[in-house]
Design a protein that fits this description.
about 450 residues, alpha/beta, Rossmann fold, 3 domains, seven-stranded mixed β-sheet, five-stranded antiparallel β-sheet, 16 helices, about 40% helix, globular
């Protein structure tokens, strides 16, 4: 291997292999301990059908020696993590994991890992990215990754079902999955009437509590036939597949509540398309992009649009459209611009922050439409700070400024009550002065039929 390749800082948990970064490419190195399993998988033609079905990230074998096998996988443009997905995205990742386990069992293999971090979203769909998670199936053995699947998938989804999508954010503080005892304590008593929840969460919590003080676990031979294992997988699949959220959020119906006129929408779409084309931007991020309405207007011109929003319903709506339209260059994400996903795990290096991942990806333009008033008035973030933030993401910024007479701005100001006068700085002049410290204003247009102004800005040299 060339000397410029280095081991990725987050790749240390699996003795079977690890990830290296070689220039701009990420490669997977297989250690000799995993050679027999990998060769058995290849001999069984295990990978090709999964590649074709877009369930497992495709790879080619690049090098082979007595010390290592090096795979070059198809590159993921932007890695995303479970706490940045909508409920439906999370659910589809869980179902994909169960499908893979069933597929593996058909060929006498089994998943040894069922981490939610083994899945990401690529070209509009969830895809499994850990090629080394498969092992040889041992007759009548239980599913090795069962407990991990419960903590990483079933528990977060069920808690979200009962308590709202915010429960999915618990994966930020429980990187190894939500413990069964914690999940059981948060579920309503009636959940014990569900055979799936009683068996896979409540009973698991009881068993863990019973044996938690055992310094040396008792050796017990647990047997589970392949048929019984398939029944377990089917029950989990059917239960998760039916799970739904029942919640409404403030911004989920945003565009129907604004003072936009139809011509405002059309003008805004056309102006954004004109500016993005003029900059030949192929990678864009739309922060506060709601359901992807405006990013979708330029999809034909770009390679990937990352659309992030604080509102779960908006992200869910966007993902539903991605699925229905089979869009491969739209990536919905759920996070708060004012409180983005942090770095997590060992030495804060296992899971990079969303901002560091975005900076590596390198968006060629940022859309900040209908977001500056939320950042400034809801988050109390000064104009200069948000300008510096946007300048750190891309050299091109398309930003919309709602004036004080805009319906949403008026509503946000009303909520300030006796402190409303402390926000007199929220005006066009103050905004432009602050942003011109980091950007030049290339173009500025009033959006007809609205109280909003659209800017094209370029970072200063």
């Amino acid at each position: 291997m060339k000397s410029k390749a280095h081991r990725h800082q987050a790749s240390f948990r699996d003795p079977s292999g690890y990830i290296v970064q070689d220039g701009s490419s990420f490669k997977r190195v297989i250690n000799p301990i995993y050679f027999p399993v990998y060769d058995a998988l290849c001999k069984a033609d295990f990978f090709a059908p999964l590649f074709k079905a877009k369930m497992l990230i495709p790879h080619v074998e690049q090098e082979r020696s007595d010390q290592s096998i090096i795979l070059l996988p198809e590159q993921i443009e932007l890695m995303t993590y479970p706490y940045e997905w909508s409920f439906e995205q999370y659910k589809q990742a869980a179902l994909l994991t169960l499908k893979l386990q069933n597929y593996a069992l058909d060929r006498d293999f089994s998943l040894k890992d069922a981490s939610a971090y083994n899945v990401t979203f690529h070209r509009g769909k969830p895809i499994f990215i850990d090629t080394l998670s498969f092992d040889l199936y041992q007759k009548d053995s239980p599913w090795r990754a069962y407990k991990q699947f419960i903590g990483h998938f079933l528990a977060p989804l069920v808690l979200a079902h009962y308590h709202g999508a915010e429960a999915l954010k618990m994966m930020q503080t429980h990187i190894d999955g939500i413990p069964a005892a914690l999940a059981a304590s948060m579920l309503p008593g009636r959940s014990k009437l569900s055979p799936t929840l009683y068996t896979n969460i409540h009973l698991m919590a009881k068993m863990e509590a019973k044996h938690k003080d055992e310094y040396t676990p008792k050796s017990r031979s647990i047997k589970l036939s392949k048929k019984s294992l398939r029944n377990l997988l089917r029950s989990l699949y059917d239960y998760i597949n039916k799970l739904e959220l029942k919640e409404q959020t403030e911004w989920g119906d945003y565009y129907n509540k604004t003072n936009y006129q139809p011509q405002s929408f059309d003008f805004k779409k056309q102006q954004i398309q004109k500016w993005i084309r003029s900059r030949a931007a192929r990678k864009i991020i739309d922060l506060g992009g709601n359901d992807g309405t405006f990013a979708r207007a330029i999809l034909q011109d770009i390679d990937l649009a990352v659309v992030a929003d604080i509102d779960h319903n908006a992200v869910a709506s966007n993902y539903a459209q991605v699925k229905a339209n089979k869009e491969v260059n739209m990536l919905p994400l759920w996070f708060d611009v004012a409180q983005p996903s942090p770095a997590l795990g060992w030495a804060n290096k296992e899971r990079d922050s969303i901002l560091s991942r975005l900076q590596v990806w390198g968006p060629e333009a940022v859309l900040a439409l209908a977001v500056i008033h939320h950042i400034t008035l809801s988050g109390n973030i000064p104009f200069e700070d948000s300008a510096r933030f946007f300048a750190g993401l891309s050299s091109v910024l398309v930003i919309e400024f709602p004036k004080r007479d805009d319906s949403w701005v008026a509503s946000l100001l009303e909520r300030k009550r006796e402190f409303i006068n402390h926000f007199d700085h929220y005006n066009l002049q103050e905004f432009e002065q602050a942003y011109m410290r980091y950007f030049t204003i290339e173009e500025k247009v009033e959006i007809p039929g609205s109280q909003r102004v659209l800017y094209l800005m370029q970072t200063r040299e």
